[in-house]
User: What shape does this take?
Amino acid sequence: MPMRAIIAGCGRVGSQVAQALSLEGHNVVVIDRDPRSFERLGVSFNGETMAGMAFDEKMLREAGIEEADAFAAVTNYDNTNLMASEIAAGIFGVPRVIARVYNPDKELTYRAMGIDYICGSTIIADIFHRFVTAGGMITHAEWPGGAKVVELEVGEGARRMDIEGLRAPGAARLMALVRGDKPVFFSRDTLILPGDRLVMAVNAGDKVYAERIAPLAGGGGRGPEGSVATVGRAGRAHASWRVVVAGCGRVGAQLSEMLSLDGYRVTVIDRDRESFARLSKSFQGEAVKGFAFDLDTLKQAGIEQADVFAALTNYDNTNLMAAEVARRIFGVERVVSRLYNPDKEKTFQALDINYFCGTSILAERFMKRMVPDRLNIIAWTANNRVLVTEFTCPARFGGRKVGWLEKEELLRVGLIGRGGVMVPAEREARLEEGDLMVAAVLSGRIGRVRRITAGGWPAAAQVARAKARLARGLAAGLSQRGGEGP
Assistant: This one.
């Protein structure tokens, strides 16, 4: 059923949230003090726009806030977001109110005032941190009991194997095969090649996974049947890893702090010397003033010995140029970039530059809070070509097999949660209404998957109940085992 949503702020995130809500049939009103910002909404947006201040009570009444189901404050100013959220929740009693926080230092204020918020800097810094420190394996999502969605990079030393050789019922299930940053269709006879990335649903505590699947990762250790995987960065102590971060904005500074505390050797580059004031006294790395793509600046920062380079400036073109220089000229093994404007996504994909689009990630987080009964994206892989999604099984899928759901190759189910246990799916497993499901979907098909399931997903309360059943079942299992860990 369509809801009424008010979006305060029509920047990149606000406009993307408004567009998504509009396309999904909801009634949307966007407020921004700059009328020119509405140009971001495009011709397909069929909601309303209002120029003015987001915390003006008269304007909010005109926007229909007294009938609103959700309110999102996503302006570029923390104080504005705070005031607007307080008015929406405290005066007008909007059921779901979410605010964006720019400065992580203000999180405590929002928390103390009981305002639901999303801090973009913290979320994006954490995603980059996982990528930088991953070695041959990235954990995209995990649940109690050892269930995870991981991405393995196949090492040079892994023995010849086909997809059938990966089959490990109860221990692991392949969700996507990525080759050269592009997802490829696979069958049981498809050969796995060094450099391939495998997006897999796994039970991390299962012996078969630990002995046969995990060693495929090319970060060091021994592969299957005694083969030796490539020894890379993961085989060395953190203190010997060198990471160069371009951009000392909120995300760059936070990531640099995290890596420094972890024991990595970190150098931060920024053209504005004053930006280094964001680094605390506990930061143990170095700071270099200059442009992120300048060869002399990069050499001064130690790029020639760098294991990882992260381009996190506020400019997409600068990030793209810096990433290309680090990769092409200096041969840095692991390069990742931040993308602001989703319209430039195809350029980054064409150049095969690893990136994360903060705008899309934050917009999806806001959508999840505002419309919790929709299919949610919980992770982005293969440069946003493969999406990891989470949803509950609708009633009309009950009794069907996993293989039936996958027959049109629109998605690949990885995990099923039922009765307190989250386990890797099997093709012959039968689905039940309310199952908590995790599946991989190609980004180009996410709209079709949502349309097919429109109106079929259980309500938000049922999503919460499915997760609660998992938690209760896990707790009961622990109790029966005498309180042991999973």
Confidence is low (pLDDT under 50) at residues 219-235, 455-463, 478-486.
